[in-house]
Write a structure and sequence with these properties.
This protein is of the alpha+beta class. Helix content is about 35%, strand content about 30%. The chain has one domain. The chain has four helices and five strands. A five-stranded mixed β-sheet has the order 3-2-1-5-4. The longest helix is centred in the first third of the chain and has 16 residues. The model has no long low-confidence stretch (mean pLDDT about 95).
């Protein structure tokens, strides 16, 4: 699903994916599509407290299981599209300065904005707690 343009399908599949994570008790504290300019691609960033305790391998395993079990609803999304991060990751800390959504699933486009001198070229935020 690697795209240089965020499509409506990507936005919808991201929303469904976050809901599936919640249903499977992963409950990310932040979830967003983020455009990485150097790679010229979008990644669905999932921020989990459990990354530090369980390790990324276990979280990725759970994510892969969700992708397989929900392949009809999540068609087109692969593990390669997903990136895990910790709550104190620099980009997440930066975005938290500007946006807080609460625990629900939102839909906030954050494009061509500067936070503390750092340009955020493009992001679509589902959750930022």
């Amino acid at each position: 699903m690697v795209e240089t343009i965020l499509t409506k399908d990507m936005i919808e599949i991201g929303k469904v994916f976050v809901r599936k994570l919640d249903e499977n008790k992963l409950m990310p504290v932040a979830a967003l599509w983020f455009y990485f300019t150097k790679e010229e691609q979008w990644k669905l960033i999932i921020v989990e407290y459990d990354v530090a305790t369980l390790g990324p391998k276990e979280i990725y395993r759970k994510i892969q299981q969700i992708l397989v079990e929900s392949r009809d609803e999540l068609s087109g999304l692969s593990l390669d599209d997903v990136a895990l991060d910790k709550p104190d990751a620099p980009i997440i800390s930066l975005l938290r300065v500007a946006i807080k959504t609460g625990p629900e699933i939102s839909g906030i486009r954050f494009k061509n904005n500067v936070i503390n001198g750092t340009l955020i070229q493009d992001a679509y935020i589902y959750r930022m707690t």
